[in-house]
Specification:
Blueprint lengths: L2 E3 L3 H4 L2 E3 L11 E4 L8 E4 L3 E2 L2 H28 L9
Antiparallel strand pairs: 1-2, 1-5, 3-4
């Protein structure tokens, strides 16, 4: 089965994997057992997708959410003021 991993999309991009397994008892999970992966890794929904279009849409959602978070953080930092406290 071919899947697209978006868990690390903002740092590593969308990762395309071939021949992953989906355990019958956990249908929303996939397991990557490749040697290159350093053993095995599991991914749960919504961090993997069966088609590229869904993966791109999810990565875009993640990007927009991160920008919103950074703007909020920047706004807080810009409003911050430091004054001398108890100078002797």
């Amino acid at each position: 089965m071919k899947v697209y991993i978006t868990k690390y999309a903002l740092t590593e991009g969308i990762i395309e994997l071939q021949d992953v397994e989906s355990p019958k008892e956990f249908p929303t999970m996939i397991v990557d057992r490749r040697k290159e992966a350093g053993g095995w890794h599991s991914y749960h929904k919504p961090h993997w997708h069966e088609n590229e279009r869904e993966a791109i849409a999810r990565a875009e959602e993640m990007r927009v959410a991160k920008i919103r978070s950074l703007r909020k953080q920047l706004s807080k930092l810009e409003k911050m003021k430091f004054e001398a406290v108890g100078v002797v």
